[in-house]
Amino acid sequence: MTRSHDRVLRERAAAVIPGGMYGHQAVGLLPDDYPQFFSRAEGAHIWDADGKRYLDLMCAYGPNLFGYGQPEIDAAYVRQLGLGDTLTGPTELMVRLAEEMTLLVSHADWAMFCKNGTDATTMALMTARAHTRRKTIVRAKGAYHGAAPWCTPRPAGTTDTDRAHQIFCDYNDVASLEAAVAQAGDDLAAIFAAPFKHDAFIDQAAPDPAYARRCRELADQTGALLIVDDVRAGLRMARDCSWSVVGVEPDLSTWGKCIANGHPISALLGSEKARKGAASIYVTGSFWYQAAPMAAALETLRLVRTTDYLERLSAMGERLSAGLTERAAAAGFGLRCTGPGQMPLYLFDDDPDLRKGFFFVSQMLQRGVYLHPWHNMFLCAAMTEADIDAVLNAAEDSLAALKREAGGLAPVAKLAFLAGGQR
Ligand code: PMP
């Protein structure tokens, strides 16, 4: 039997990349037939290393908002590459981009740019500590804010000191938020908030406006800063900070992923109050001032302002979630489609180790649709109504296969830890 190019690449990777692959793009916790390597992408589609094409509902884990290789954005990027990218100093584009972002995001009076979401969340933490001259932060259990030592979900390689001065509460639970803030006493520097509950492996949840308002009040009462981590949800919920949908403005917000449609740039935005603290911290990077991603970001923001992408994403997402729920019910399954339709997570009822979910997404993969079994997904504006129909048709066949096989599905050994109640 000939081995796929993907398998050959995995073997080569195992020799020269620790663990074969690392981080969120390692496929170790996905079904065995999921490809690890890809060769190209266009619009809403990706091709794996063996040339098989998929409609991609992961959108690079968020960065693809207007379609892979969106012509206007990439033309702006390439034009700037020709003029200069990594230089001895920034270009005018940095000022223009800060102006554009502060115009778009109502709480923001200033912007700082960096590369990854983790850079932005770490800068937010430092800004809050510098502003308040305090140390403690309150954040929700299970919420992801990046992979720096203070927040990486797996503690290997970190020290207790790296992770000190943090108190955890339950998202959307006002009483636990109040208890955490009380525990911080007079040392509270910041309350971190995800725009909605988008933890892995469990149902997503919209922010309770009462929780969001209480975060704001407690920050105001204590003098701490309120931080909304919009790295994942930014520009997919609103043309503003995502908590604008519940009428709450933070002091700081963190952005990344899709703000330049996949080109490498992230941002920390802040209100006037936090400006001095932000100016006092020393943060930088060799590639943080690159001009070409800024050109791409400006073009992305132009599309955000001038197109109906957001309304289309949300309408397509709602149709997809409703259609899947309905088809699953018709096949005799409870399928929970949680989160906003444009950032959905699909989990089956009575599926503690995700064996049904794994079987379903594998069936979808065979039919050319790339879904994720336990992480929220992302729609992009290059998707069409015909793409949504294609997903629903593939789901009908995949659900029929699941119905035939459900009784005999084996446990998913690689997800055995879920049964241990770690979800
Ligand atoms: N915050 C949130 C909410 C995220 O979803 C992510 C990335 N998944 C990050 C921070 C970290 O971003 P990055 O991986 O670009 O460092």
UniProtKB/TrEMBL annotation:
InterPro entries: Aminotrans_3 (IPR005814), Aminotrans_3_PPA_site (IPR049704), PyrdxlP-dep_Trfase (IPR015424), PyrdxlP-dep_Trfase_major (IPR015421), PyrdxlP-dep_Trfase_small (IPR015422). The keyword Isomerase applies. Keywords: Isomerase, Pyridoxal phosphate. The keyword Flavoprotein does not apply. One of its GO terms (molecular function) is glutamate-1-semialdehyde 2,1-aminomutase activity. Transmembrane segments: none annotated. Its cofactor is pyridoxal 5'-phosphate. It comes from the Bacteria. PROSITE patterns: AA_TRANSFER_CLASS_3. Its EC number is 5.4.3.8. Belongs to the class-III pyridoxal-phosphate-dependent aminotransferase family. PANTHER family: GLUTAMATE-1-SEMIALDEHYDE 2,1-AMINOMUTASE (PTHR43713), GLUTAMATE-1-SEMIALDEHYDE 2,1-AMINOMUTASE 1, CHLOROPLASTIC-RELATED (PTHR43713:SF3). This is Glutamate-1-semialdehyde 2,1-aminomutase. The lineage of its organism: Bacteria, Pseudomonadati, Pseudomonadota, Alphaproteobacteria, Caulobacterales.
